[in-house]
Amino acid sequence: MGKYKEAHVIERKEVVRIAKENLEEGERWHKKVNVREIVFGFNDGSISTLALLAGVTVNVREIVFGFNDGSISTLALLAGVTGGALARGEILIAGISGVIAGAISMGIGAYISSKSEVEHHQSEIERELREIEEVPEIEREEIRQIYQKKAAFAEEELDLIVKRITGNRKTWLDSMMKEELGLFEERFENPIKLGLIMFLAFVTGGLVPIIPFLFIPTPQTSLLASSTMTFTSLFAIGVWKTTFTNKHWFISGIEMVFVGILAAAIPYMIGELFLPTILSKILG
Fold it and tell me: Within 10 A of 85 (CB to CB), how many other CB atoms are there?
C-alpha cells in the first residue's frame, strides 16, 4: 500500500490532497524524464557522439539523426586524417572503420534506449494498475481533478465523466497513463526495428563522404568532392525533413549544411596543424 491508508478510511479531504500531490508528481516526472533520450544520449555519448534528437515522428527522427551523424562524423574523420597528410589507403581504412564502429554504436544505442522506454512504460502500467486496485478512491479523484482543469464542468458533469471512465478498467488505466503521466503506447515501436533503421541510416550517411576517395587518387581533391557530396546530401535531408515539420525547406537545408561545415572544418584544421607534429613525435 506504500504511503496510502485503506481507501475506505481515508477522509474526503485527504483523498483530494493525495490525488493532487500524485498529479503534480506525475507532471514533474513527465517534464523531467524522457527515458529514451537520456539512455540514448548517455549510450551514444559514451561510445560515439552525444547529440540532440529532433522532435518529429520516431522513424523520421532515426533516419535524420542516423544519416546526419553518419555523414558528418565520417566527413569530419576524413577531413582530420586528410589534413594530417595520411595516404589514400590509410584514409579509406580510417573512414570505413569509423562508419562500421559508428553504425554499430548508433544501432545499439537506438535499441537500448527504445527498449528502456518500453520497459519504463510497462512499469508505469503495472504501478497504475496496482493503485487502481488498492486505492480506487484516490485514482477516481485524480480523474476528477484532471478533467476539472480541462474545462468548467459542473459537479454533475464531473461525476458522470468519472463514472464513465472508471466504469471500464481499460479506459480508466488508459486515461491515467495519458492524462497523468503523458505516456502514449501508440508512439512506442519495436526496439529491434528502430536499431536497424538507425544502423542503416548511419551506414548510408557514412558511405556518402567515402565514395570520392574510392575513385579519386588525390586526397585533397577527394576531400573537396566528398564535402560537396556530403553537403548536398545533408541539404536534401534537411529539405525532406520539412515534409514532417513547418520549417521552411531552404532554412532547414542550410541548417544541416552549416552544421556539417563546422564539423568538417574543425577536425581538418586540427589535423593540418597538430597531427603531423604529434605523429612525428610518437613515431620518432
Answer: 15
248: its cell numbers: 521552411
Dig out the grid coordinates for 128 from the structure. 497504475
The x, y and z cell numbers of residue 31, run together, are 517534464
Q: Cα–Cα distance between 140 and 121 in angstroms, integer? A: 21
Cell numbers standing for residue 29: 516526472
Q: How far apart are CA 51 and CA 42, in angstroms?
A: 10
Burial label, 19 (beta-carbon count in 10 A; 0-12, 13-18, 19+): buried
pLDDT tens-place string over residues 31-85: 444 444 444 443 343 333 333 333 334 467 778 888 888 898 898 888 888 876 6
Quickly list DSSP for 9-28.
Answer: GS-HHHHHHHHHHHHHHHHH
Q: In the numeric block, which cell numbers belong to residue 57?
A: 515522428
How many angstroms separate the CA atoms of 103 and 67, rounded? Answer: 10
Strand, helix or coil at 76?
Answer: helix
Q: Which pLDDT tens digit goes with each residue over 208-229?
A: 999 999 999 898 899 899 989 9
CB-side neighbour CA atoms (13 Å) of 67: 22
277 exposure class (CB count in 10 Å sphere: 0-12, 13-18, 19+): exposed
What distance in Å separates the CA atoms of residue 88 and residue 170, rounded to the nearest whole number? 62
Distances (CA, A) of 90 to 72, 93, 264: 19, 5, 18
